[in-house]
Amino acid sequence: MLWASCVTPGFFEIEHSSYVVPENAGQVQISVIRLGGKDGQIRVKYKTVARSAAAQTDFLPVEGELVFEEGEDRKFIVVQILNDNVREPAEMFEVQLFDAKAGRGVINFRGTGSKPMTVVTIQDDDSEKI
Ligand SMILES: [Ca+2]
Ligand SMILES: [Ca+2]
């Protein structure tokens, strides 16, 4: 038997395709949103992927899972940004969503939409003070 209330579970996206944060910001909050419906429980895993920014040096890598209960449509991934006193170019890392799954009784789940990842640019704050 189908639960009529779980036929439009929606899908996941990262709200913005890029984020820019100064390296002294302490952290960056990546918003994960649920679009197209709020029925039932859906979940998605996430991880940071280093590009020119180095894990442990420029940011603290995170990995985990977000669980959206029925009616929930926004959650945040928080990544700690590490400051230094080195003059350097802007550096980047990615946050990716993967392995989206629907809970029990949920049908029509599409997983992730057109924005399953975002690029975070860390801007240096040491270049201007000489
Ligand atoms: Ca700095
Ligand atoms: Ca710096």
Automatic annotation (TrEMBL):
Protein name: Calx-beta domain-containing protein
GO biological process, one term: cell communication
Alphabetized UniProt keyword annotations: Calcium, Ion transport, Repeat, Signal, Transport
Organism this protein belongs to: Araneus ventricosus
InterPro entries on file: CaCA, CalX-like_sf, Calx_beta
Domain Calx-beta, first and last residues per copy: 8-98
Example of a GO cellular component annotation carried by this entry: membrane
Pfam families registered for this protein in UniProt: Calx-beta
